[in-house]
Write a sequence for this structure.
């Protein structure tokens, strides 16, 4: 339990919450909320509650923030994309597959079976890495909105 | 058994009067018949010699209330007076009252009065006496204000009732004090056990006040002159012969107690003051009935004086005689009013001659003055005798002057009404008939003096000196009036003097009473002001305050959820603080 | 100690956000911040015993509440009501 780390994480959480409330654009506010949830997860991890940290990340960052984005988009006037979306789609798919298969880069070349896959996916550090990649993926998607005026 | 029925005939007349379907004259005859029946009952009761008895009525908290009747000389005397004069009055009313009016109410009230008066004199316990006493006062009020479309009559009735109620309040207090002191309401045991202590004295004083209010003595006398607003038969019955005698009856009943309590001087003082002021007021009064009212006050004060001196039998004899000749005088006055059409004696001119009216009125007037051999002489002389016995020079002087004045005022009254050259006219037989009968009673009434005294087991003491002296004094009074009003002596300097004016203003006592009443009314008005401006405003103000608070609180319910959330947070903080620091 | 203070600071930030913002979504975000601060508080208090499972109950309720809030928001946003002070039916 290192004090400075706790302090840093707490201040990140506070700043994220403040930005979430005071941001001028709603989507940026949602991102601030995501930052707040992530900092909260890190605090839980530092307090020794691993499962809480993981649950926080799954439920809130992955679920609640996504729901916010969904609700917000339902009531927004649709944004006209200029140009085709194929490059964007292909790049997203590539990133997704990269995210899914990156853990296996550390696997032994014995052969890929379901058990080894599962072992790799859900073992102690593998799933954290996986989570981080999922987060990165969702971050990349949401960052699409950063580039637009909402 | 008969003694319980004595009030009954008149009660039946009252019920009959209320239910009578047609011409109400016949109720008058019925009343006269009831009077005769009652007289017969009184005679039978006297003959049977019972001392009375009681019937149980109801019990409250261990005290048994009974309907009890006491039969002794006093109650039989008064009952006989009420019944006898009542007979004449009912007959007289048939002739006097205008038959076109609705008279059932009149006869009912008259019969109510007779019933309650009989109940008063026959009752043997104080509770019952008070009950009947109040009824007497109520019927007096009703009868004075009988012509209720006359404002003066209503005012007079109210004045009478209020004055009588003051006396009644004191009487009730006295009754309860006696109950507290002697433990019973029954009269005979109280009289037997009478002793001289504070409770008896105060109770006796209160009883005297109650008696004074009914008998119009100073200071509760102001209602009697105004009570003449009622019909003349009512004045004849109530306010000369019977109701005003009720107060004196009460004093006579309780005289042993009052004597032991040492209250006789009080009676004497009240009587003397009343004699003086009523005689003065009678000399300057011009209304025919009011003069007779003042003379009633005067004569009742004579009786009270006799009681105060201990000469009970003399006083009662004068009571009997006065009832007879005063009723005669009032009935004659009623006839005179019918004939002259006015009530002001200065405007009357009836013939002074040998007609029935003039002669019977003269007999009544001379009896009042106390000239022998009329009955009034014997009774007044008896009282005068007792006064001479006391040897009190002031008292003798006052009484002598009173005899002169009473002769003077009644002679003045008579001489202003009957002139040498007046008119004669005809009245109904019902009005004329009682006059000679009563006059005969007055003339021959003196013969029963001995019998009367022996009924009370005492003897009449008469001295020639007293008789001669009182006759001389009466003649002196008559002479003065004769000189002034028949011969025309000029007394303008006297009648315009401020003293005469003071007498005319009834010694300003009425004004004193009005001022007192206004003061009490002022208290009432102050209460009303307090109630309207303070109490009502407080009550309404509470409502206003609550609605103002409501209006204030209403602004918190703005409908904006932000405000609600803010209130929620504030409340939450308060709860936290309370939980942490208070509990 | 620091987590306790941090949770209080975050709580007050959340209250500030609830009371001062007029946009419904922003208020819902502030509510999520409040609940997060509470879970942090509970986690720090339960550090000694290691029983962190109570927080799961709070998460369950919180997620349901956010779902319902967003559903209501979607319903209201159809009639262009995004300001919370437009919802004034419950007044005298």
């Amino acid at each position: 339990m290192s004090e400075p780390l706790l302090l840093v994480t707490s201040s990140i959480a506070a700043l994220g919450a403040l930005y979430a409330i005071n941001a001028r654009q709603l989507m940026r506010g949602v991102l601030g909320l995501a930052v707040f949830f992530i900092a909260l997860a890190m605090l839980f991890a530092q307090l020794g509650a691993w499962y809480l940290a993981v649950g926080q990340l799954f439920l809130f960052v992955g679920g609640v923030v996504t729901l916010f984005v969904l609700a917000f988009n339902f009531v927004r006037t649709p944004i006209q994309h200029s140009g085709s979306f194929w490059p964007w789609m292909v790049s997203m798919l590539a990133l997704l597959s990269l995210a899914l298969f990156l853990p296996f880069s550390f696997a032994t070349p014995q052969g890929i079976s379901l058990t080894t896959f599962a072992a790799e996916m859900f073992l102690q550090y593998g799933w954290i890495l996986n989570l981080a990649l999922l987060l990165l993926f969702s971050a990349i998607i949401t960052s699409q909105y950063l580039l637009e005026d909402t | 058994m008969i003694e319980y029925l004595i009030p009954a005939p008149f009660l039946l007349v009252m019920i009959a009067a209320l239910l009578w379907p047609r011409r109400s004259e016949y109720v008058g005859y019925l009343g006269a018949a009831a009077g005769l029946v009652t007289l017969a009952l009184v005679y039978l009761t006297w003959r049977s010699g019972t001392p009375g008895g009681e019937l149980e009525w109801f019990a409250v908290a261990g005290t048994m209330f009974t309907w009890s009747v006491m039969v002794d000389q006093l109650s039989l005397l008064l009952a006989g007076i009420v019944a006898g004069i009542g007979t004449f009055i009912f007959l007289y009313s048939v002739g006097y009252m205008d038959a076109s009016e609705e008279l059932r109410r009149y006869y009912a009230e008259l019969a109510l009065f007779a019933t309650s008066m009989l109940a008063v004199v026959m009752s043997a316990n104080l509770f019952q006496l008070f009950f009947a006493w109040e009824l007497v006062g109520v019927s007096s009020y009703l009868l004075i204000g009988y012509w209720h479309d006359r404002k003066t009559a209503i005012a007079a009735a109210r004045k009478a009732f209020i004055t009588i109620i003051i006396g009644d309040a004191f009487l009730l207090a006295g009754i309860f004090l006696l109950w507290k002191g002697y433990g019973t309401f029954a009269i005979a045991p109280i009289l037997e056990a009478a002793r001289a202590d504070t409770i008896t004295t105060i109770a006796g004083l209160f009883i005297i006040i109650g008696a004074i209010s009914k008998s119009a003595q100073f200071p509760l006398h102001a209602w009697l002159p105004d009570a003449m607003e009622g019909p003349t038969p009512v004045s004849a019955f109530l306010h000369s012969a019977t109701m005003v005698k009720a107060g004196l009856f009460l004093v006579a009943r309780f005289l042993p107690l009052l004597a032991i309590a040492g209250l006789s001087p009080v009676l004497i003082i009240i009587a003397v003051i009343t004699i003086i002021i009523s005689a003065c007021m009678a000399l300057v009064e011009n209304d025919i009935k009011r003069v007779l009212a003042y003379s009633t006050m005067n004569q009742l004060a004579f009786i009270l004086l006799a009681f105060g001196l201990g000469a009970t039998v003399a006083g009662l004899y004068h009571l009997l005689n006065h009832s007879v000749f005063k009723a005669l005088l009032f009935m004659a006055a009623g006839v005179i009013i019918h004939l002259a059409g006015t009530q002001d004696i200065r405007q009357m001119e009836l013939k002074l001659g040998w007609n029935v009216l003039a002669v019977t009125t003269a007999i009544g007037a001379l009896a009042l003055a106390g000239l022998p051999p009329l009955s009034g002489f014997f009774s007044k002389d008896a009282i005068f005798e007792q006064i001479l016995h006391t040897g009190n020079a002031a008292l003798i002087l006052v009484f002598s002057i009173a005899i002169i004045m009473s002769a003077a005022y009644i002679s003045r009254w008579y001489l202003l009404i009957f002139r040498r050259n007046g008119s004669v006219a005809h009245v109904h037989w019902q009005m004329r008939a009682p006059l000679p009968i009563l006059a005969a009673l007055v003339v021959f009434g003196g013969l029963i003096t001995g019998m009367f005294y022996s009924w009370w087991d005492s003897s009449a003491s008469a001295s020639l000196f007293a008789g001669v002296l009182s006759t001389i004094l009466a003649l002196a009074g008559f002479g003065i009036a004769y000189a002034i009003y028949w011969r025309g002596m000029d007394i303008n300097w006297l009648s315009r003097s401020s003293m005469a004016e003071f007498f005319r203003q009834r010694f300003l006592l009425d004004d004193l009473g009005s001022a007192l009443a206004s003061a009490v009314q002022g208290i009432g008005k102050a209460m009303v002001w307090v109630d309207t401006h303070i109490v009502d405003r407080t009550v309404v103000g509470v409502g206003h305050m609550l609605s103002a608070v409501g209006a204030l609180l209403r602004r918190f319910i703005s409908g904006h959820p932000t405000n609600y959330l803010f209130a929620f947070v504030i409340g939450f903080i308060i709860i936290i603080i309370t939980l942490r620091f208070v509990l | 100690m620091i987590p306790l203070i941090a949770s209080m600071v975050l709580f007050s930030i959340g209250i500030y956000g609830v009371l001062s913002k007029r946009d419904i979504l922003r208020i819902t975000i502030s509510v999520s911040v409040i609940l997060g601060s509470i879970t942090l508080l509970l986690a720090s208090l339960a550090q000694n015993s290691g029983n962190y499972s109570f927080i799961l109950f709070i998460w369950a309720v919180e997620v349901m509440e956010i779902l319902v809030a967003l559903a209501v928001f979607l319903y209201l946003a159809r009639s262009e009501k995004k300001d919370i002070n437009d919802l004034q039916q419950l007044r005298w």
